[in-house]
Amino acid sequence: MKSIVVLILVSFFVSCKGIVAKQEVKVDVKPNILFIAVDDLRPELNFYGANHIKSPNLDKLAASSLVFNRAYCNIPVCGASRASLLTGTRPTRNRFLGYSTTKDKDYPTAVSLPMLLKQNGYKTISNGKIYHYENDDVTAWNEIWKADELWSYALQESQEIRKNTFRGLPFESADVHDSVYVDGKLALKVIRDLQKLKTSKEPFFLTMGVVKPHLPFCAPKKYWDLYDRKSIELPASYLRPKSIPKTAYHNFGELRNYENIPKDGDLPEALAKELIHGYYAAVSYADAQIGLVLDELEKTGLAENTIVVLWGDHGWNLGDHKMWSKHVNFETALRAPLLIKVPGRTKGEMSNDITEFIDIYPTLCDLTGLKIPNTVEGKSFVPIINGEKSEKNWAVSKFKDGVTLIKGDLFYTEWTDKNGVAYERMLFNHKTDALELDNLAEKPKYKKLVTQLSLELREKWGTDFFKKK
In this protein, which residues make up the domain named Sulfatase N-terminal (predicted)? Predict the structure, then answer.
């Protein structure tokens, strides 16, 4: 969005003739940005065609936003995904590898999005989980706030279990007020910020890093009560076809670290459905907190000049391919929600253009009139906001040795060694196999296509893919 031009009429008297004249003075007003990150959020929402998760506030936001139906994270693990997005740069074999990634260690010379905005007069506030670690890229922020992680659980007994175990319980339903949990406290903090910022002359980059629906699935009881567990079904993709290489799967250690979860094998069906129930409840709880903030944005009058971006840092498996958590190269972990509301320019459109998370940084540069740093590898999707077709209709995502090219209906993954030599392959055609159950990569009739996609993957995974830090 170009800077908004405010016309100030200045009246002055010309005493000698007694004439009143008016002069137009142009003042550039930069748009504000409300930046909402939601941890582990699947695009399993009403505006994506699902109808079982209750998220009225996200639905309302989508109705005035441009919704990306095919947005992909560049790496399905929180720390790395966030560092990649906030620098606009791709993961490589040596950069942005896991949850413990920090921007400061992996790419200290890159100018991050919040740093660029701060350097150009924006007040930058980090609330909640934006980077994985609150002490990462600290000079980019005017203020950093994060709630105590103790508040992951509301009940005393759950807190005691957490103190005496590695992770604690995988879910909790407590009859408490929303503000008892972390995200309730987060919403109140962001609301206080909006109330302060409404009188500020500085543009702002205000963030809201929502923790839920990340494990543990803890939410006030009223959100659990929105769902009938008897109606919850396991996903249609709750199987592991033999055509898919074992490399593609994992033992979902993230979930198994919680209490009362079997250490190996499939989960009991009742437990699997309870986890799905907990995930739904956590999404509805997160939705309510986001709604409070969006309502305050309207009440303060700031919505008229505030771009709202909402994204999930990656997808999450809810029994898909008999897996839980992220950390895989299936679409369930790579595809995530992305919405952008630009005042006066978005009205609830849905884009099917393929978009990567590294494209968010240059887009916000274009919308705020800032020069895109040369380290940024993403491409602005402002043309899509303007109703045009994307010039770059593909994405590349990576996790460990697996690198995935997403192009049209095709999902092509190679697992490569340190020299780039492939040792496993996976190819799905979403036009005929949306659930990714039939791996075409080793079938003779697809050999030519696999060779073509392999070459294209190498062209697109980044020029510094093998570069050391």
Answer: 31-369
